[in-house]
Amino acid sequence: MSLVTFAKIAWAVGVAAWYVLRIPFERKAKRQGVADARHRTAREIILLSISTLGLGVVPAVYAATSFPRFASYPPSLAQVAAGVLVFAAALWLFWRTHRQLGRYWSVTLEIKDKHQLITTGVYEKVRHPMYSAFFLWALAQVLLLPNLIAGPAGLIGFGTLFFFRVGREEQMMREAFGAQYEAYEKRTKRIIPGIY
């Protein structure tokens, strides 16, 4: 098996693991009523589609067909090993975040019935560890898919969702939790502890 094939398989296993990890939390979240769903908009659907294109569709096409071949390059063993480790870290953080959010998790921006603000565990240092996990996934994709289009597609796709969504999400949280969320914002960073 070539290193490129191994890297593609590692990426696919990571994506499958992400999906399997999410299933029980998605079921639990669907049973929780929604108090505020005003952010289910066409804009939100477009942003989620852009993210899915970058983290799912474009890399899947490359993994299955090597298209576009002109943008491919030979990876190093160190690069692929780093990609596997970063994807493992992304999956761990993804699982921890889901576990802590429990029934309050949602794909779209919404406040659940009896929603509580989570500020402990992985939420103690950053306000959006789920986004941190997705950025780690996108970084792993760059390392695992040696293609100048498919590799960075996740950073571009998810980055677009993040930068157009995070401000609106934080505004929604301020409206829902008031001074409690404002105090939380002052003592934490968005996605990188101590930095941003």
TrEMBL record:
Its main location: membrane. The keyword Cytoplasm does not apply. It is a multi-pass membrane protein. The chain crosses the membrane at residues 6-25, 45-64, 76-95, 134-164. The keyword Transmembrane applies. GO terms for molecular function: protein C-terminal S-isoprenylcysteine carboxyl O-methyltransferase activity. Keywords: Membrane, Transmembrane, Transmembrane helix. It is found in: Membrane. Coiled coil: none annotated. InterPro entries: ICMT_MeTrfase, Isoprenylcys_mtase, Metal_cation-efflux_comp. One of its GO terms (cellular component) is membrane. PANTHER family: BLL3993 PROTEIN. This is Isoprenylcysteine carboxylmethyltransferase family protein. It comes from Xanthobacter dioxanivorans. The lineage of its organism: Bacteria, Pseudomonadati, Pseudomonadota, Alphaproteobacteria, Hyphomicrobiales.
